[in-house]
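Thread amino acids onto this structure.
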């Protein structure tokens, strides 16, 4: 199988680096067994960045290997050591590369040397327990996980950045003109479709230096996919001027310069977007006697259409200087009118699913779905094997009002709550009765709020309810003792309200009762 040398369309599968995990660690040294949390943060993952390299003229490197992946961030460590940053991956692309999604949506236009586009952002590193410590949570027993890097699939399309584009039928002499006016040496032969890829040449006209490109294989019906022109028409979209190269010495029956010009103009019109480009006409091969006569015959008709016409010969060089300086004049004027382009760094970020707010709640047949940048990021950072980390997640969700909104929308205890994209959502059972708070209520790595029985919390609630009814001389401790005595009595009382060792005289519980009232 032939190996292509020019590739102008590729599909890339890109993966940014995953962020490193934070670590839960406690500082220990002699005489200080519990010196406080000292877990470091994870390092961010590397991003994938496209960068315009003027030395690159084709996308062939990505044709042979279309998968690229950046480095992962390093994990944190104890003694406040943060993880290493994942190295960014720079992918060089030619000037004029168009970046699209697989659905055809344009993400960016890479024009200008040094222009960069962050096509996939690396994942954030997770925070260690030292960064999570606060006045109410002095020694967190958990850390946050690193976020996965973005994974995208993009399509790169190259549109050659040339100042002048040569258009015309196959074997009209476009490649010969480029070879005559520049140092480019494209393949030249006397059969149609010799040129299979666009050729570029650098031309100098006085103080103006510009590039010239030819579009191979333009024939009637090229805009519909016939020949090779359909694949390469986009390469002249960036040209400041177009030159019609017309063969005045063709031996094909039914061909003449005026009809050739009309056919090519019709294809350019059907392709669209090139109506405002200045046109020049190069009547090529006038070194042939019949060609010179035909050029003289059609010159007046072409000039009547408002076109500048040049009789040239790529073989002998006749008329070439006048054509080159005419092209240089148009290019110089176009550059003077064009604003100065500066190298830019473009960052592609997906639009928020909730229109810019913190979150949104959608009722679906599967349950209540919570979508939003913050909730989804927090879920990705949570270690669900650690109860304290799950409690911390509950605190964060409640802080932005997720639980309140679910209650307002009519969610009941036990309903299914899904957070995240439908493809990888995390499923919870809704429990609005769980109280939130920043303090750690159990051993390291545990959160008592996730347990059903909380005697201490129930006792505090009972005391708080009895405080408004206490007497003036009673303190909070007196109320607590009174409630404790009441509960002790309730535990030793039977269903009749009397202790098991007591009985009422004259009832069936009285051992001396004779059955009469």
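Threaded sequence (517 positions):
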């Amino acid at each position: 199988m032939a190996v292509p040398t020019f590739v102008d369309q590729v599909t890339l599968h890109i993966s940014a680096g995953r962020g490193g995990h934070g670590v839960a660690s406690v500082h220990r040294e002699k005489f200080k067994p519990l010196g406080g949390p000292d877990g470091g943060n994870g390092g961010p993952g590397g991003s994938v960045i496209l960068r315009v390299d003027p030395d690159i003229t084709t996308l062939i490197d990505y044709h042979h290997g279309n998968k690229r992946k950046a480095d992962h961030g390093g994990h944190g460590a104890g003694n406040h050591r943060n993880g290493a940053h994942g190295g960014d991956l720079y992918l060089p692309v030619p000037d004029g590369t168009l970046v699209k999604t697989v659905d055809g949506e344009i993400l960016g236009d890479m024009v200008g040397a040094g222009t960069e586009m962050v096509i996939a952002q690396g994942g954030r590193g997770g925070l260690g327990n030292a960064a999570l410590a606060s006045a109410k949570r002095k020694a967190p027993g958990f850390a946050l996980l690193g976020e996965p890097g973005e994974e995208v699939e993009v399509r790169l399309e190259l549109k050659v950045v040339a100042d002048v584009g040569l258009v015309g039928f196959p074997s009209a002499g476009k490649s010969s003109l480029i070879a005559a006016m520049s140092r480019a040496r494209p393949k030249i032969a006397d059969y149609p479709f010799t040129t299979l890829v666009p050729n570029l040449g650098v031309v100098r006209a006085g103080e103006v230096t510009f590039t010239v490109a030819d579009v191979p294989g333009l024939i009637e019906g090229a805009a519909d996919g016939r020949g090779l022109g359909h694949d390469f028409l986009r390469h002249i979209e960036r040209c400041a001027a177009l030159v019609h190269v017309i063969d005045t010495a063709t031996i094909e029956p039914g061909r003449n310069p005026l009809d050739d010009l009309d056919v090519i103009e019709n294809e350019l019109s059907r392709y669209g977007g090139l109506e405002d480009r200045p046109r020049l006409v190069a009547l090529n091969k006038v070194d042939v006697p019949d060609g010179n006569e035909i050029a003289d015959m059609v010159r007046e008709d072409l000039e009547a259409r408002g076109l500048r016409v040049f009789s040239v010969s790529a073989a002998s060089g006749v008329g070439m200087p006048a054509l080159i300086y005419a092209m240089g004049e148009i290019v110089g004027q176009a550059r003077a009118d064009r604003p100065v382009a500066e190298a830019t760094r473009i960052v592609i970020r997906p639009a928020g699913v909730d229109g810019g707010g913190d979150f949104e709640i959608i009722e679906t047949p599967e349950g209540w779905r919570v979508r939003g940048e913050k909730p989804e990021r927090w879920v990705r950072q949570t270690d669900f094997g650690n109860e304290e980390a799950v409690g911390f997640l509950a605190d964060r969700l409640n802080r932005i009002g997720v639980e309140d909104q679910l209650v307002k929308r009519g969610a009941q205890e036990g309903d299914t709550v899904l957070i995240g994209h439908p493809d990888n959502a995390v499923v919870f059972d809704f429990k609005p009765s769980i109280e939130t708070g920043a303090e750690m209520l159990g051993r390291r790595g545990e959160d008592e709020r996730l347990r059903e029985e909380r005697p201490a919390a129930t006792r505090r609630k009972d005391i708080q309810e009895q405080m408004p009814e206490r007497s003036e001389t009673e303190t909070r401790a007196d109320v607590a003792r009174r409630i404790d005595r009441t509960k002790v009595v309730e535990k030793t009382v039977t269903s009749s309200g009397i202790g098991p060792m007591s009985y009422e005289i004259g009832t069936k519980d009285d051992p001396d009762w004779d059955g009469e009232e």
